[in-house]
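Re: duplicated header lines in exported structure tokens

Our pipeline writes sequence and tokens for each protein into one text file. With two proteins the header for the second block appears twice in some exports. Here is an export where it did not happen, for reference. First protein block:
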Amino acid sequence: MLEDRMKCIASSMGVKIHCPERGRFSFFNSPYPARHTFSGIDICPGRGFCDMAPSPVQGKVTAVRQFKCHRRKGFKTSPYDYVILLCSSENPERWIKILHVEPSIKVGDIIEVGEDLGTLLRSGFFDFWTDPHLHIEVRKPSDPIRAIGGFKFERSLRLGESTFTEDLSGTVIESKPEYSLVALNEESEYGIVADIEGQPGLLDAGIPHYGWMGVHMKNSPKIGGTVRLCGTKIEVDKLISGSYRSTLFS
């Protein structure tokens, strides 16, 4: 069911990844290995757990696999997660791996961008604050499932002229047990903009709970550069890697 307008946010090996315009996405906000190599994307479609998940890609379903996952203490999670594998319609030599959706589709189905894949589940791999989302990777057909080995993404997001975020005050627009969502008084098209040696950088971060973060920039920062938010230094030990001017710190 095509309810949300889908926007291309990234691509890899000729495969385009889409996100609902009302949704959110992240390349780095996760503790898992694909985030250290810029080879995974999480897409939050702006829907709740058990709601339908819109497909971020187009392709033919080649496999659906159920597997057991961690059982969390303190909050209820699904005992199972699923891997959905699609052969890309844009590049048949590449497969797309999708996690965290209980599928309603079956092997052989042709899926278009925005069509329903199944229901968003609360995986045992999630932390308490993790929103409903789809995890996406572009893979070789010979190696589609491992936690590492995906192809790197190039973001389609083009950063305009951004000003540094100077004030984190705002209005609470949503509050639930996991977190509160605040609309900042300072408007920004995509998110919070930090100061990296005088250059604006859009935070794509898991700090402090993951202990590292990504920053999207027009130009690559110098090694050992300082990251400041609202004038306050964010402690950074080292630059781990950089790709497509998206830089990872820890």
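Second protein block, exported in the same file:
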Amino acid sequence: MLDVPVYNPKGEQTGTVQVDPARLGGRVRTKLLHQAVVMYEANARQGTAATKNKSMVAGSTRKLYRQKGTGNARVGQIRAPQRRGGGRAFPKGNTVFARTMTKKMRRLARDNAILAKINSGSALVLDGLTVSAPKTKPFAATLNAIGADRGCVLTLEQSNEAVYKSGRNIPKTDIRTLADLNAYDILRRRKLIFTRPAWDHLLDGLPQPQSAKVGA
């Protein structure tokens, strides 16, 4: 069993919670995490960079002068790629960089990322977080008290506008609901923080470890 520390908003450790690593995939699969990070970064690319070929630029298609007898190089139309103002020979076009992973793979990658943070001592549970109104200063003080001032992703059970507005201006601080949490968000920040309701909801959704078969 793995122990995850529990802190209160004042930065005091009040206890620990336990989780079976088998429920988080058993081991950290680095290749799967790499695949997930590449996918999320690739899907964030717009791919809208584009240049024009010779059929897209303005200009006549007439041959500039006859092929022979002028003493000049043999050239074609003014829109040819080798001429100034002409189109590109191999132009960029709209590119789709999107990659996909199955739902099962994305879920396992998320669980493996959580497991990696727990193993490195970078995950914790924040118990008793109450934000009644958007206030950045006390929210930042809480993050500083629990050692998450250098970057963290705070996971909520459900959307909370007051918490989101309190943390959106703090550098390297992401506010996510448990349903939106993914491997990329977890790995790109130093600390992984769960509120107590979010942690309990996470455990409820994790698969139970399969018992060893008799005689296997």
